[in-house]
Design brief:
Purple Acid Phosphatase, chain A, domain 2; 8-stranded antiparallel β-sheet; elongated; Immunoglobulin-like; single chain; mainly beta; 555 residues
């Protein structure tokens, strides 16, 4: 039953309506094949990179008639919009009960081998799903620039026990396969299940919560595999929602649920819901991935569900990728004079943070961080999260705390107020580009006043050089807040690197300085759309101060 589609249809894109992600996933499911589905055309307009079918892709319930399943697939294949989606875009697919073959069916279903064969053939998955496999589970690995997306398509039907028996969902071969897949490196893991993982057990519908041992096994397997960057996508319910269970994977378990291309029902009671359930019968869902840090955004994913008849957006939910990762908080002065302290933060109550200071990797016998680590020499602190069973849960993190002697101050008899500056014009992406252009103007500026110094709104740069007077010997934190790029040097030391084309952003760095005058250089460029340059400093234990008129000097 392979599909060979041979016609072309003109279509209109919607570029300009959507932000341009690094990768776009169309999310589809719960589709009645004998009824109109205007949402399919909306997916064409959205121009996804892949279509992910979550199950109940057809409604083919039968106890004995396998030809009815074939007719249901033929009805789906005959829809022009589906034909175009199938031709134009890669796909990934799993099933739920109605394309498995019978409502709420599990491993007891008599026709499951026949429906498995039809599923593999229709979706073109015969090479990815071996015929002898106990179900239709498989994984995809998709490069997105320099990042790697992993799609894990679970089969929650073929081996599923009866609900409310605390039985199994996946079967031992699939559990072993999943453990192996979770050990593969990936920058984002999207685990798909035909029915929900985070729906409450008291709901009327199927949910992993009605198989509590299996669900806890799933969570534990993710933990013991040291997997991060995990998010769940599920179907079954004829609406869309977002659910969140705090700390379930050590980081939060987040479930994006959507299934209802041409169906709608009232949402189930669910205390884990963190985004409103949709209300439109005809709807379409997109998951946009932003792996790259942009001028205004950190890496994140954006889940959206739209009314297909009006294009009104009914769900908009984003997750910053850092929320799906285990990260300790290193604090304290990374450079110090005399004696220093390393302070570590552990935001995960179910994990211990073990550390070493001797260069070795932490082990289950390494001390658990409980109070600041006192140092009198340059020390590299290595830290790693461990489970209560003593198993490593994360990679090893490290931070160098450096004991420094203060930079010697200059011996000067006389100084003048202000900084010498050089002014440049041109289109710059990085500060190094400034040095490749000619100086337009030079002089002395008593402050970092861009409005007074710039000759045009965009595409210019400035380099300030001179002196700063340090009131007492010690560790100083310097900050630049800039739109766009900036760098700050004390002598020949790069202290703050805030380079690149970006919106207003703060970066900081440390310098250990002796009392007196020290050379300072501040580099800055403006690309487009707003300009700002603010320089601040703080002595260790003191208050932050903005540097301006009266703080800068030159010989």
């Amino acid at each position: 039953m392979r599909l060979f589609f041979c016609f072309v249809m003109m279509w209109v894109t919607v570029s300009g309506i959507y932000a341009q992600p690094d990768y776009r996933i169309a999310l589809l499911g719960c589709h009645k094949q004998f009824e109109p589905a205007p949402a399919l055309s909306k997916y064409l307009e959205a121009e996804p990179d892949i279509c992910l079918w979550i199950g109940d892709n057809i409604y083919a319930d039968t106890e004995t008639d396998i030809t009815f399943v074939e007719r249901c697939y033929a009805a789906l294949a005959a829809k022009p919009a589906f034909q175009q989606l199938y031709e134009r875009y890669p796909l990934a697919a799993t099933w739920d009960d109605h394309d498995f073959g019978l409502n709420d069916a599990g491993k007891e279903y008599a026709l499951k081998e026949q429906t498995k064969a039809l599923f593999r053939e229709f979706w073109g998955l015969e090479e990815k799903i071996p015929a002898e496999r106990d179900g239709i589970y498989y994984a995809e690995y998709i490069p997105v620039g320099e990042k790697l997306l992993q799609l894990i398509m679970l089969d929650v039907r073929y081996n599923r026990d009866e609900p409310q028996t605390d039985g199994d969902v996946l079967g031992e071969p699939q559990w072993a396969w999943l453990e192996n897949e979770l050990k593969h490196p990936a920058d984002l893991r999207l685990i798909s299940s035909g029915f929900q993982i985070l729906l409450d057990e008291r709901a009327g519908s199927e949910t992993w919560a009605k198989f509590p041992s299996a669900r806890e096994r799933l969570f534990n397997l993710i933990r013991t595999s040291k997997a991060e960057n995990v998010i769940f996508y599920t179907g079954d319910q004829h609406y869309g929602e977002v659910n969140r269970l705090s700390g379930a994977l050590d980081f939060d378990a987040i479930e994006l649920q959507f299934a209802g291309i041409n169906q709608i029902e009232d949402p189930e009671w669910n205390p884990l819901r963190v985004a409103n359930a949709i209300t439109s019968k005809h709807s379409y869902a997109l998951l946009d991935l932003y792996f790259s840090e942009s001028k205004s955004e950190v890496p994140h994913i954006h889940f959206q569900v739209f009314n297909a008849m009006t294009d009104d957006r009914e769900i908009s939910y984003r997750v910053n990728l850092r929320e799906l990762q285990l990260t300790p908080d290193f604090d304290g002065a990374f450079a110090f004079v005399g004696q220093g302290e390393a302070k570590l933060g552990n935001p995960y109550p179910n994990l211990s943070l073990r550390y070493t200071t001797n260069g070795e990797e932490p082990s289950a016998s390494a001390p658990i961080y409980q109070q600041p680590i006192v140092m009198d020499r340059t020390t590299t602190v290595k830290a790693q999260f461990f489970t209560s069973e003593g198993q490593p849960r994360s990679k090893v993190f490290e931070q160098k705390y450096e004991r420094l002697s203060p930079k010697a101050a200059l011996s000067l008899d006389r100084v003048n107020e202000g900084l010498r500056y050089k002014y440049y014009e041109g289109k710059f992406d990085r500060l190094d580009d400034l040095m490749k252009t000619e100086v337009v103007e030079s002089g002395v500026a008593v402050s970092l006043d861009l409005e007074k110094l710039a000759k045009q709104e965009d595409h210019f740069g400035l380099v300030f050089e001179g002196l700063i007077k340090v009131p007492s010997s010690g560790v100083y934190t310097f900050y630049t807040i800039s739109d766009d790029g900036s760098r700050l040097y004390i002598g020949d030391q790069l202290v703050v690197d805030n380079d690149g084309s970006h919106n207003t952003r703060q970066r900081s760095g440390l310098a250990v300085l002796e009392k007196g005058y020290h050379p300072i250089k501040i580099e800055y460029f403006e690309d487009y759309s707003g300009e700002q340059l603010v320089v601040k400093w703080k002595e260790q234990g003191g208050m932050v101060k903005v540097l301006g008129q009266g703080d800068f000097y030159h010989e």
